[in-house]
Amino acid sequence: MSSNSESLVGAVTELLAYPLFHDLKHDEVQSLCDGGQIRVLSHREVLFRHGEPANFFGVVVGGAFKLSRLAQNGDDTVIHFCSPGDVLAALVMPQPRALYPLTAHAMGPSRAIMIRREVYLQKWLANPGLIARMQSLLSMRMSRLQGQKVMQRAPLSAKVAALLLQLVCKDKSGEEMSVPLPLTRKEIADSLGVTVESVIRVMSDWGKKGLVVTSDQSIRILQPDRLIQQVDGEEG
Amino acid sequence: MSSNSESLVGAVTELLAYPLFHDLKHDEVQSLCDGGQIRVLSHREVLFRHGEPANFFGVVVGGAFKLSRLAQNGDDTVIHFCSPGDVLAALVMPQPRALYPLTAHAMGPSRAIMIRREVYLQKWLANPGLIARMQSLLSMRMSRLQGQKVMQRAPLSAKVAALLLQLVCKDKSGEEMSVPLPLTRKEIADSLGVTVESVIRVMSDWGKKGLVVTSDQSIRILQPDRLIQQVDGEEG
DNA sequence: CGTAGCCTTGAAGGTGATCAATGTTTGTGG
DNA sequence: CCACAAACATTGATCACCTTCAAGGCTACG
């Protein structure tokens, strides 16, 4: 139940599969993970907490994490959902006495490699190709945040639709696809800054119309085109 | 009136003053700006536009810029306000066929150094110390975005107060301070995703109570402590 | 078997949006 | 210097959307 740590023998090979490490050799990745350790978490466990000293950054290698912060009224706001291949808290590493800017909760059983701050400063920053790919990753995350900000004035249904469509791998529009995270209505609400009840009303409406189905904690989108119409503000 | 470009003889020396280039020598900065050019814009002119091919990134050296995107309903959303020393569009440089992710409008007379994409890839990325400081900059920008997202459920007055307090250099709380940008109500509204009218109602209320004054296009905060109370949700 | 987390539904109420009209400031050209 | 246009600021009335509050059901897990 509690977080466990193992050696990262096999994990390094997993990393090679992610675009971030694409043109690197096994030894090079090994060196980039120097002194790191794997952490295995179960559902709702905390990888790191907002405000703690940030001596490690992370690479997700399994499951998913939600990055969130508490508002002063008590309920937390989800900033980002992380999938395997994503990097956590790397941006704050350069700061001398860095604190984690967010709290990271595991969504379902998850794993992450935690790597020392010094290794980032000495080895990661010295590798221009790696930094370039990391900046692309950050650029996409930034882009998502901005995309959500643009939707602020849109009706709630548009926001929920946009979020769901952001989360599915948008390969083939027109076909059925499913959200690759165990996502609760509360988490959707916390991510959009609205109440659970409102999200439920929107989504149960879609359920009746056959737009989406929630089965087994997994959200499947049956008619992506009609969801996209919701984003664009048309009536469905 | 239209955007002008000069050589950047003197501008390089200006750069040395910003934290980003703090430990660099004049020649090094010169090399980092290789082939760059200075652009001088007047109020409301566009430095670059969302969707254009991004072959240059920028460093602000005077005035201010607002980074915004159009929503599908037509009005634009302000993502960020840039002051001198800030870097523009650097994150997308690593991508092969990068497009500008936002539109940059000058707020009042402003200047920026525009530097070729290749120079970023070859010289900037190869300088670990520089990249580290750039990531700190980005980290702060990210932090602002997140801070605003956390405020989403708060009442409008709290959001406006938080924005104003973010923009002033928060040195001495308790004393009078003023926003260092020519900021209109519309821009505040576009930044928060609300309507102009709502912002006006909040701020004119504060004006009557002596919390803030708008004179000469400049917003001065007379009683910062009471503004902070607004953020925390207390009645004023 | 009981608790905890999640989902659902309904009724009432408030906050901010919308629409419309008008005043104010800034900048431009004759 | 004045006239005019454009951008910005302001105020009021009405209304929709989302929140809040309350109550209950479902499933998982110790």
Describe the structure.
Two copies of one chain form a homodimer. Helix content of chain A is 36%, strand content 23%. By secondary structure, chain A is an alpha+beta fold. The first copy, chain A, has a five-stranded antiparallel sheet with strand order 1-2-9-4-7. In chain A, helix 6 packs across helix 7. The first copy, chain A, is globular. The interface between A and B is large, with 42 and 42 residues. Chain B binds a DNA duplex (30 and 30 nucleotides) through helix 7.
Give keywords:
homodimer, 236 residues, alpha+beta, five-stranded antiparallel sheet, four-stranded antiparallel sheet, 12 strands, globular, disordered N terminus, DNA-binding
The general outline of chain A is: globular
Question: Structural class of the secondary elements of chain A?
Answer: alpha+beta
Q: Major sheet of chain A: order of its strands?
A: 1-2-9-4-7
What is the CA-CA span between the terminal residues of chain A? 44 Å
The helical percent of chain A reads 25-40%
Q: From the structure provided, what is the oligomeric state, counting identical versus distinct chains? A: homodimer
Query: Largest sheet of chain A, if any?
Result: 5 strands, antiparallel
Average residue-wise pLDDT of chain A: 91
* Strand coverage percent of chain A: 15-25%
Spans where pLDDT lies below 50 across 5 or more residues of chain A: 1-5
- Biggest chain pair contact, residues each? A-B, 42 and 42 residues
List how many beta strands of chain A DSSP finds: 12
How big is the Rg of chain A?
19 Å
Topology of chain A as a string of helices (H) and strands (E): EHHEEEEEEEEHHHEHHEEH
